[in-house]
Amino acid sequence: MAAALLSGGVAADQEIVIERPNGERVAAMVRINLLHEAAGGLVGAAGCFQVIGERPEPDEQLQFSQRDLEDFFENGVVALHWVGPDGRILRANQAELDLLGYESEEYVGQHIAEFHVDRDVIDDILARLSCHEKLERYPARLRTKSGEIRHVLISSNVYSRDGEFVHTRCLTLDVTERHLAQLDLQESERRSRELLEALPAAIYTTDTNGALTFYNEAAAELWGVRPELGTSYWCGSWRLFWPDGTPVPHDECPMAIALKENRVVRNIEAIAERPDGTRVPFMPYPTPLHDADHRLVGAVNMLIDLTHLKQAHRRQQLLINELNHRVKNTLATIQSIAHQTFRGKTDEELKQRFEKRLIALAKTHDILTREDWRGADLRELISQLIEFACDAGERAIVDGPSVLLPQRAVVPLAMAIHELCTNASKYGALTGPAGRIVIEWQFVAGGTRLQLRWVESGGPPVQVPVRRGFGTRLLERGLPHELRADCKLTFQPSGVVFVMDMPLSAAPPT
């Protein structure tokens, strides 16, 4: 107040300590405003005091601050130490001692280099600090009292007084577990890379934008080039084509589809053209890759070279065609021998039956050849045999699901159908205009067996034959033996009924 009156100035927001009569002290904020009369002369002053709480004495404040700093240094969870200009440890907290396994008297006072594995590293650290350089996360290796190596990151700067180096302020962060995890990851990546390199299949990877990030030696051989990683996109092939010869832009190839639509792509063939003009048919297997949060991070593709497979298929087709040609020649020879054998004989019907059986066998052989001897479609087999043997037209009703007969069952079943057709056209339902036959089949026993029914109706009354001929023996004995089938042939007055129940995967007879 006195200062404001004497100086004629305003005292604003000044902090003071007020002592009360009882000796208690409180801190207050004071503001002094001068009072003037109308003519401008000073007539007094007004003071405003606001108590802001008790404040400790300056010495006491300093003590509190020092205790806080001491507690922070000594009990902090991060390893801290000071190093003097001569490289000796001046001070270390408990976290630093726990990290290395030493007692304070074993650690403090020693040269810091004694605890570093790499002398050149600590020499570089001390040299930089001597130049008052600030270090951030400098990697180093420390040896503990037990001999264990700890990987650390050191951050440090220098405390100076009047420009003189007093001591360092070092923070040591233990990253040993992280380092070991990185080594494990690197080793895993190395093994994975070696595995991919060793695979005979062409494999490559891309990032989310389609840029190549890896390819193995097999991929380079298939492409005929070594594309540059990071700048080649979608596929390393020089040129791409569909099997029909249509060019495929790289950004429309199967790998591009997998990445753009974030889905696997299967059952597609393509052709890669090398710079030397040779072409390689292949089948790709592009698959998107995702991180733990299911976000797309790239894709991997495996290219299967189909060259040898297609060459083998062509050789197989040539062999099958040659086999088919020779079998047909053999059947023609048998037919010629039979014709010569039956020449001059009066039983013309027997000769025709024999020749038709050979022709039915040849037609069955044609179906098997067309299917590469994998089997035959049951509907196609029955339809062809009915058209050849009895020309039933619309009077033959064929009904049933799609069935690929096993190869072993095709010839026996074809001969059985031929015999039923021949009998129907000569003695059974197809001898009259109102007769008809129904051939139907279905899966039974959970799809493991096939049941086929042949039913004739509308023909002349049927009588049980006195003599069992070739056809009857084939139906009642041949099929059960060849196909492990349950067969039943009945001669009902309304027409012949034949029922067969066969396993679809039974082993061939021994």
Automatic annotation (TrEMBL):
Residues in PAS domain copies: 65-115, 188-228
Keywords from the UniProt entry: ATP-binding, Chromophore, Flavoprotein, FMN, Kinase, Nucleotide-binding, Phosphoprotein, Photoreceptor protein, Receptor, Repeat, Sensory transduction, Transferase, Virulence
Source organism (scientific name): Steroidobacter agaridevorans
One of the record's GO molecular function terms: protein histidine kinase activity
Signal peptide extent: none
Protein name: histidine kinase
Reactions mediated catalytically: ATP + protein L-histidine = ADP + protein N-phospho-L-histidine
EC number: 2.7.13.3
Domain PAC: 136-187, 266-318
